[in-house]
Amino acid sequence: MPQITPAQQPPTDCGLTHLKRIAADEQAIAQAELNQYVAEQAQAIAPTTDFLTSRDRHIISEIIEVDPQSIRTLWIEAGITVWVQFVDGGRLPFERNWFAKRVAEVKATLPETPRERNERLSEELEVACQKYGLTHGEIDWLSFSTTLYVNRQRLGFLGCNLQGQWYSRQSHLGGSRTAVDIDAAIALLGVRETVAA
User: Fold this and answer.
1) What is the DSSP string of the chain?
2) Residues whose CB falls within 8 Å of the CB of residue 61, separated by 6 or more in sequence, listed in order
3) 137 phi, psi to nearest 5 deg
4) pLDDT per residue over 102-136, tens digit each?
5) Average pLDDT, stretch 168-181?
6) How many angstroms separate the first and last alpha carbons of the chain?
7) pTM score, two decimals?
């Protein structure tokens, strides 16, 4: 029987081990790339900016019965699902229409915010100005007051106090007279709605 010299010996599993190591390295690289892709997608779906106010958190916490401080943010996915993200990283999905209905119900039980009040008063002001052919100057949002004009001539001042009463006055230094609504406050300035003949 011929004798085999070490140079002629078939390769041991040394080459196979080397191939396994290369495959393992490639698999680790592929897994790392996949993990990075998943993390990027999660960031794209779940915004990191915190735009919720404490009022928003209170409303959401009432709906899903959790501590308001545990809520990080929320977003709507594909216009269908509302996702609530928690500080600890957990998430809960809700059907958008159901969630919107519950938000409206909870908001109805809360007092009006200053911003909501200003938006409501601003709408009333715009309707009244259109109705009487008036324009107004810049609104002081803290006191909700403005200057009214008719044909570019200053007519007087109009506002709404913290008790929800509309008021008007002829001049800056004049006394204010309160009224039951915006129409009555404008009438106190001598403006009447035009009647079509």
Assistant:
1) -PPPPGGGSPP-THHHHHHHHHHHHHHHHHHHHHHHHHHHHHHHHS-------HHHHHHHHHHHTS-GGGEEEEEEETTTEEEEEETTS-EEEEEHHHHHHHHHHHHHHSPPPHHHHHHHHHHHHHHHHHHHT-EE---BTTTTEEEEEETTEEEEEEEE-TTS-EEEESSSSSPPEEESSHHHHHHTTT-------
2) 67, 68, 70, 71
3) -85, -165
4) 999 998 898 888 888 999 999 999 999 999 999 99
5) 88
6) 129
7) 0.53
User: Torsions phi, psi of 180, nearest 5?
Assistant: -75, -25
pLDDT of residue 159: 95
79 phi-psi bin (left φ>0, alpha ψ -120 to 50, beta other): left
Q: How many residues does the chain have?
A: 197
pLDDT digits (tens, 9 = 90+) for 21-64: 777 777 778 777 777 776 666 555 555 556 788 888 999 999 99
Q: Return the structure tokens found at 45.
A: 């779906």
CA dihedral 24, 25, 26, 29 (to 10 degrees): 120
Token pair of 128 as six digits: 């009244």
Residue identified by tokens 């008719």 is: 150
Q: Which amino acid is it at 29?
A: I
Q: Judge contact between 55 and 113, C-beta under 8 A.
A: yes
